[in-house]
Amino acid sequence: MAGILKQNSPSSPPPPMSDAASAPAAKPPVDLVNVQINGTWHKLPKGMRMIEACRQVGASVPHYCYHPKLSSPGNCRMCLVEMGMPPRPQPGQEPEKDEHGMPKIGWMPRPVIACANTIGEGMGIKTEGKLTEECRRGVMEFLLANHPLDCPICDQAGECRLQEFSVEHGQAESRYREDKVKKPKNVDIGPRIRLDDERCIMCSRCIRFTAEIADDPVLGFTERGTHTTLAVHPGKRLENNYSLNTVDICPVGALTSNDFRFQMRVWFLSETNSVCTKCARGCNTEISARGDTVYRQSPRENNDVNSTWMCDQGRLDFHFVNSEYRLTDPMVKSDGKHAVTTWKEAIQSAASGLKGLGGDEIAIIASARMTNEELWLVKQLQQATGAKFIDVVPRSGGGDNYLRHDDRNPNSAGVRQILGIEPGAALDSIQRAVRSGLIKGVVALGENLLKCGFDKDSLGKLSVFVSTHILANATADLSTVVLPAASYAEKRGSMINATGRLQRLNKAVKSPGNARDDWEILNDLVSAISDQKSLGSVDEVFKQLAGSVTCFQGLTLASIGDLGRQVLETNETVPVLEREKERKAKGIIVG
Amino acid sequence: MASNPVEYLPGKQPHPREHRMIFRNVDRAGWDASIDTYLNDGGYEMAKKALKMERQDIINEVKASGLRGRGGAGFPTGVKWGFIPPTNTKPVYLICNADESEPGTFKDRYILHQDPHQLIEGMIISAFAVKANLAYIYIREEFPHAATIVEKAIAEAKNKGFLGKAIFGSDFDLEIYVHRGAGAYICGEETGLIESLEGKRPYPRIKPPYFPAALGLYMSPTIVNNVESLCHVKHILQMGGAEYAKLGTPNNTGTRILCVSGDVQKPGYYEVQVGKVTMGEVINDLCGGLKPGRTLKAIIPGGSSAKVLKADETYKLKDGRELTIWDIPMDFDTMAACGSMAGSGGVMIMDDSRSMAWVINNLNKFYQHESCGQCTPCREGSPWMAKISDRIIAGNASPDDVDMLEQVANQIEGKTICAFGEAASWPTQSFVRKFRDEIKSMTKADLAGRIVNEETKLAVAGLEA
Amino acid sequence: MEVPADLEARIDEAITHYPVSRRSAVLPVLHLLQHHFRYITEESVAWTAAKLGLEPIQVLEVVTFYPGFRQTAPGKVHVRVCRTLACAMAGSYELLEKFCQASGIDREAINHHHPIGVSPDGKYSIEFVECLASCGTAPVCLVEDDLHEKVDPAAVDKVLAQYS
């Protein structure tokens, strides 16, 4: 093509800024520059992207392709803004100053993209005004020209950037009267994702995610120009364990989750910040629910834990919360049969059973899926019963070079800190002691013992077998007392992840039926056995914990905040975060 | 340098107004593309000389020559070379842009086919000057024979020790490879070309930060020059920059090859001193005038992306001159002052037999086909323009559609990643602005605001599209 | 798909032209494959990807971008007629029609999605392409690798006869 590049982009770096021209009245420290945004001067870090600078001062710039964790191709053109720099003065001439004593800005006649350009000393940015408004209206009109406008049946409705920016920057009526380009619809591109190519705006976020973050570049664009089509190669699938992140970052309804699509309109959902409990990473999440039904779970940005991503396994592992196999009532076994009873009677039955045994006859199998607060109460239970045997069930394997940790329990660190044990260290001896009949009473907390080395016969012979469960299972069936517990989505509490970060779960939904939060169950059990004073709230439990375990000192459950607190040094790094740091240092991503 | 007498093939003699330098050997009698022929004519002497020079001296000569890129942008070549960061420690690459994709342009074709060693010599000098040890010649797919010829020439040069390790006995190594495109106008855009050379879709890069001189091929400093520009380098060295600068006119130095097509008696290539001939002389002298009985209607003066000039326009310049279309000197600056550009040197002449709506529709279709689709305004706007002008020439448009055609172009211009946005919108804007009445005369007022596409008509009627 | 040894040797040689990145060899490898097989098949895409250590989609992205890579089989003689302005002014639309008539190709069946029309006997194929950069000798066409200039639409038979 003929280089008419001169008018648009001389193949040269921009002229270096004259120091004389840009020196403000009071020169800021080297790392800050003076930038005027919509008429107001700010001091902001040199080299910051214009779009981030604008966001920081409350002048958000609409965008589609830009994502701080991905490279910036600058392709959507939605973030075009007006930009200016102080003109280079003639030799010997003083730069003209504005009323703030700052050099006057020479505004460029053409807009620039805010996503990829960085701020410099004396720069002016306008995110409002005729030029930017025209740009945004134009880009919106173009984006909608070939868009099917099928909002009523589109699953993205309510969280679609096309809808949002169309309201803010678009026009009521399309001038486009031509035939729209036809593209593939309802394309099965992977086990968990569907693609509608007509809705795709070619922002390339998903392609960049698969190439830059997931190292699985199976997505690409085929054809060209107006026929450009997002595709997987025939025979290839987008099926890596991080695939659903592409649905999160898709700004439109092109990529939708098979699991969530058509289940619920998003505006009926309410969100609760929580943490994934599928492994020791503790990816920060948002649980979306309507009423007491959880509909989806998605990653929440935490740059010390999971960036903005999470694995599909963790994300989709919430359906058991809504399961029809949830235990909803406490049960006590008599004559070999379980009968529904009240909490009071169930706790009483468990307490009296345990009280009738000696400490060296009791084992507690707790879980590294329990919160710190629950584990602290386990410790109290151990003291109250004098239980000689205690352990949790370790789970490992399946770690990857991204986010998934090889420790598949979310709170092994909490177990080490609170119970002072190494997960799994005593499990063998407990199993032997159960088999030999030495142990006559077992308290199993949230663990299906038949799946971790215990056998049905010996468990069946226990005189006291108290267990808490979320779902009906064979271990519950063997128990003398079954206590229905709460899932992670139904509780508030804390856990410590693999990197030593204390993080908080919050209650998104109510537990079904008469199921109760585990801390309450344990609290009641401990009181029933030991006459220890019952605690009034989980916050109070945490207070006790903070008073007795060093790493929690000085903290409250509330003060942990939504992004957690570093409480231990584990010298572990997170592969995804390390790579992002590298890319950030190179200026490829904002981070 | 030997200066053998130059004779041309019968019927291919250059016009007396021409100044053959780059095209000296094009259509030359007894000439072929072999290295022996080139050497007999004094070839590669300048490359030998260059390798004994200081690099900065070569760059200074090129700067002094005032050479402006012949690919279209007209950006000073020496200045471009000077953009490689002085602190650079990465390898530097030289790329010859032989994509020749701007409609109306066909000069590089003849250099590649008939005088490949001139290009290779220019590249040796240029690569040495910018410290590049690896160079590529990006040849468009539609020149299959050219690729073979240039590859053969490279092999010949390598055989003689002019390429490869320690060339001409110096300590300078240089490999040149031919890289063939596959039919994409966008590969003429230098960052698109670089992406293509990296084996990716040729999506142009955003600038900043990806200025090729700093972050080009493989994120290393890269100089991309047009075929003709690289050939000029050889002559600059031969003449000296200052002497070269005496050719042409100030700030528009040297010679350039005009490629004339369309409604003239003798379309073809004409190498002239820049600015020393006027548009009128191009048409009437070089090209033997318009076709019998025809009058001039419009000219696209610098490749299809250049804004059209209308035959009856006059141009008032800042220096007080008032020019008609016939008076415009064929240089970079005056053509820009007249509201268009000299671009790649492709001059397309249209006489009164041409429908301007038909012409703009033809160009709209070209840009629709060639839009890479990376950024929104161009991807969506280029086909929209083509669809509107399709309706206009089919008599299925309202007068408002003509205005909307221009507005769509306005919405593209200045808002895209690369200059394709301008390339696609400038022709539309200029044709509509200058020939609005003619184009509107093809429309029907009663179609204003009416829904005219088939799909929507059916939808309105409640039928499945 | 069987890639003959000599073809693979040429492909391997071409790859050496790109010491920094094998990916750069995508275009040359595809050109060599197309030259041999006449068009780019799905197997060629997969073969190229494996050869260069790429994901097949990375090759497909490139193949589908460039009209120079044919995705369907052309005729024994492939004709590309220039559509762009100078040639169009010189009658290239008529030229295309005449080529179609002469070779028995349905002009109407040639469109964006089916850019290559093939004659019923498989002998010829026609494609309407953008600028071939020979505007001074319009109208032009490429028959296989040969450029034909100032082609008289009335004389397309003679052009085709050279390739029978």
What report would you give on this structure?
The complex is a heterotrimer of chains A (591), B (465) and C (164). With 591 residues, chain A is of the alpha+beta class. In chain A, 25% of the residues lie in helices and 18% in strands. Chain A has 3 domains: 22-128, Ubiquitin-like (UB roll) (Roll), CATH 3.10.20.740; 180-321, Alpha-Beta Plaits (2-Layer Sandwich); 331-566, Rossmann fold (3-Layer(aba) Sandwich). Chain A has a 7-stranded mixed beta sheet. In chain A, strands 1, 2, 3, 4, 5 and 6 form a 6-stranded mixed beta sheet that branches. Chain A has a 3-stranded antiparallel beta sheet with strand order 7-8-11, with no helix packed on it. The radius of gyration of chain A is 30 Å and the shape is elongated. Chain A starts with a helix and ends in a 6-residue tail after the last helix. Chain B is an alpha/beta fold. In chain B, 40% of the residues lie in helices and 14% in strands. In chain B, the strands form 4 sheets. Chain B has a 5-stranded mixed beta sheet, with helices on one face. A 4-stranded parallel beta sheet of chain B has the order 3-2-1-4, with helices on both faces. A two-stranded antiparallel ribbon of chain B has the order 5-6. By secondary structure, chain C is α+β, with helices and mostly antiparallel strands. Chain C folds into 2 domains: 5-65; 77-161, Glutaredoxin (3-Layer(aba) Sandwich). Chain C has a 5-stranded mixed beta sheet, with helices on one face. The radius of gyration of chain C is 17 Å and the shape is elongated. Chains in contact: A-B, A-C, B-C. Chains A and B meet through helix 1 and helix 4 of A and helix 9, helix 14, helix 15, helix 17 and helix 19 of B.
Defining key terms:
heterotrimer; A: 591 residues; alpha+beta; Ubiquitin-like (UB roll); Rossmann fold; 3 domains; seven-stranded mixed sheet; disordered N terminus; C: 164 residues; Glutaredoxin; 2 domains; five-stranded mixed sheet; 7 helices; elongated
Instruction: Give helix and strand order of chain C, one letter per element, not per position.
Output: HHHHEHHEEEEH
Work out the helix count of chain C. 7
Structural class of chain C: alpha+beta
Overall average residue pLDDT of chain C = 96
* The CATH topology of the largest domain in chain C: Glutaredoxin
Shape of chain C: elongated
CATH homolog superfamily of the largest domain in chain C = Glutaredoxin
Number of domains of chain C: 2
Strand ordering within the main sheet of chain B: 8-7-13-9-10
Query: Which CATH class of the largest domain in chain C is shown?
Result: Alpha Beta
CATH architecture type of the largest domain in chain C: 3-Layer(aba) Sandwich
Specify the helix fraction band of chain B: 25-40%
Taking strands numbered 1, 2, ... along the chain, how are they ordered across the largest sheet of chain C? Answer: 2-3-1-4-5
Q: Termini of chain B, distance in Å?
A: 72 Å
- As a percent range, the share of strand residues of chain C is 5-15%
* Strand runs of chain C, count: 5
CATH homologous superfamily (4th level) name of the largest domain in chain B:
NADH-ubiquinone oxidoreductase 51kDa subunit
Rg of chain C: 17 Å
Helix content of chain C: 40-55%
* Assembly state (oligomeric): heterotrimer
Uncertain regions of chain B: pLDDT < 50 for 5+ in a row?
Answer: none
